[in-house]
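$ ./design --mode recover --in tokens.txt
reading tokens...
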């Protein structure tokens, strides 16, 4: 029989571990790296939110256009802000531009708002039709999918940074839809195209 020789366990060294200075330096480095990365991360998150909101508005307009040609009646997309929350709805167009009480409103991300300010060319980036200052922005599509003369754009921005923009255009009378984003140089006095 072989016997194992037992060796005594080592006594922990009283000097093992990290000093307060070493721990402080690591925490400081992590803080500095976090401060450098935070603005980039925030911009990334804002761009993702805007892209999602832009896509929702674009698909709502496509749905209204499809419904109008399918049903052979006018359909409308309405966009409003209620308590700082952007909402959109697709519904049949009533007489004029009124919105039925039964409309199902959908919320965009709560960090997004409609860009209502003037750009540096004193032009509004959001130009969709509104019947009154407090009324919703809207566009109608007739039975052919045309816009009844209502062209324009809706521009979305994060609540904390109006430099990042995403827009949805109704760019022709026949109801051509497209999406755009912020640019450094204006085109037709608009920076979102």
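writing sequence...
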């Amino acid at each position: 029989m072989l016997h194992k020789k037992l060796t005594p366990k080592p006594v922990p060294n009283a000097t093992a571990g990290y000093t307060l200075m070493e721990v402080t330096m690591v925490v400081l480095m992590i803080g500095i790296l976090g401060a450098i990365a935070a603005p980039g991360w925030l911009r990334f998150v804002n761009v993702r939110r805007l892209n999602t909101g832009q896509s929702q508005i674009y698909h709502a307009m496509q749905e209204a256009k499809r419904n109008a040609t399918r049903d052979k009646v006018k359909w409308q997309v309405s966009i409003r802000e209620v308590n700082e929350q952007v909402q959109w709805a697709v519904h049949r167009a009533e007489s004029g531009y009124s919105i039925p009480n039964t409309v199902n409103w959908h919320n965009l991300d709560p960090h997004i708002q409609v860009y209502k300010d003037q750009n540096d060319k004193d032009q509004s980036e959001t130009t969709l039709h509104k019947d009154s200052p407090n009324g919703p922005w809207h566009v109608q599509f007739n039975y052919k999918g045309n816009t009844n003369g209502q062209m324009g754009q809706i521009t979305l921005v994060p609540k904390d940074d109006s430099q990042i923009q995403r827009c949805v255009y109704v760019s022709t009378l026949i109801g051509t839809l497209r999406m755009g984003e912020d640019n450094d140089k204006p085109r037709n006095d608009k920076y979102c195209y």
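exit 0
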